[in-house]
Amino acid sequence: MSRADWHREVLRASQSREILFFVHGFNTSQTTMLHRLAALEQGLRKHGYRGAVVGFDWPSDGNVLAYDSDRNDAKKVAPYLVTETIGLFLNENPRFKLHVLAHSMGAYLTLRGFSGVGDAPGARKWDVDQAIFAAADVDVEWMRKGAWGSLVMDRRSNRLTNYYNGNDAVLQLSGDFINGGRRRAGRKGLPDLVEKDQVDVDATQRYAAFPQKGAQISHRFYFGDDGFFKDVALTLAGTAAADMPTRLITNGDAVLKA
Fold this sequence. Notes:
hydrolase activity, hydrolase, AB_hydrolase_fold
């Protein structure tokens, strides 16, 4: 399919002038990516989202032992998320609302892509409306107010919503061993000091109520959880964080209802 034909197909798939780009994570085969993309689209449609859902399929090896290789590939292809994907829809008239949902290492790719592509001379600043991280395999301290990750997402998105599971066994391994003890935002949440439009959502109780358990499931259960899909649909619709009926506020923290 040519780029022009693909562009037309995406526009045709959107019934609400919105596009959600899904960025998969580490150890994800193309077959798995397509299954998760379909689950995401079906789950969002159930809760009223009518935009297009598009997968950004970067070259993960689909091998649990290929973490470093996948991370290097994610960094290499990250700019194409902007230049060859999001960028193709920035100048539609009337404008489209563009969103990104990144899972696991896909959040790292998104950070690298958003930080590596600047604004064209004379052009308006490019950005997306809603940026969503689920099980983000990125350093917590990157997201502290004033740190590079926080600054990038503040400039390139209207709001960042970070879903985390305190019992994510995959990110426990990633943080404690692979990344030298550096905490992961998808397991520990955002730092205590963030920009005003960067929001944490604790999904630990949702996982506790999920019918299946296991190390891998603790990292990917989002794609089978209707409560997550409902919350994401409301987020994409622009619902204020304080007005989300899918969340409880506990000790000042937003918790996804079990």
